[in-house]
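Help! Submission page says 'invalid entity' but I think these are all valid:
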Amino acid sequence: MTAVRHVIDCTTGEETVEDFTADEQAAADAASALAAKDAADRAAADDVLAKARQVIAAKLDPDTADPSTDALLSALATVVGD
Amino acid sequence: MSIRPPAAVAAAQSVAVLADSTLGVAAATITLSAIPQTYKHLRLMFSGANSGAGAVAELRMRFNNDSVSTYNSQGSKIYSAASVFDNGATYAVLGYITAAASAPRQSIAVLDVADYAGTTLNKVGLTIVGGRADAVAWSSSTHNFPSSVGITRIDLFCDADNFIAGTRVTLLGVG
C-alpha cells in the first residue's frame, strides 16, 4: 500500500494528502522490513534469555526446574546462525 | 493585589495557532509547510502513536525538508534503565513513541525551536517525549541543525510504518 504524507500549510490552513513518490515508497518499504527483522531478532534474543534463566534455575534448584542445556545451546546456535 | 505586566509588554506577547490537524487516515509523514516567519519562537505539540507491530517507534524530524545535512541528536531516555542516545544522521531523533503493540496508549511530544526565523545562528530543537509507561516512558533530547536559515517547514516521521489515525499535531507561534 502506498504511504502518504499529510501536509498542513501553516499560512493558508489548507490540508492535503499526497502519495509518496516511488523513491520515498521504496525507502519506507525498506525501513518497514528492517523494523520487522529487528522485532524478530529481539524476540529470538528474549527466547534465549528465557532459556538461559531456565538453565540457571535448574542449577540452583535441580528438583523443580528443567535442566535443558541442549535447548539453550540450540537457541544460541539459531541466533548466532542469523 | 495582582501583579500585571506593563500594557506594552502584554500587548507584545501573543501565541497563535499556526496549524492544528488530526489525521483522518494513517500517514507516514506529517508536513508542516509555509511556516510564517513573523513569530519569535515555535512550539510543536504531538499526540499520537505509530502503527508498527513493535512496542515503540523512533520519532524523527527534519527542518526545511533537508535530508542531506547531519542533525546531531543527543538525549537521555528512561527505558527499563536510564540510557542515552547520540545520533548523527540526516534526520533528528526526537524520542520514542508508543506503537501498535501497546495501542491505544498515547505518546506526546513537545518540540521547541527558539528564534526559528533568525538567520544568524544555527538552529536547535529541544524535545521532550512521554508515553508508554512499561517501555520507553520519557526522553529528552536536543537536535543541532547546521543551518542558519529560518525554519519554514517541519516534517515528522518514524523509523518505519505510519502515524495512526487520530494522531494530532499542533504548531504554535509565540511572541
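Support: the input was valid. A stray whitespace character was the problem, and the output above is from the cleaned input. The first helix of chain A runs from residue 22 to 60.
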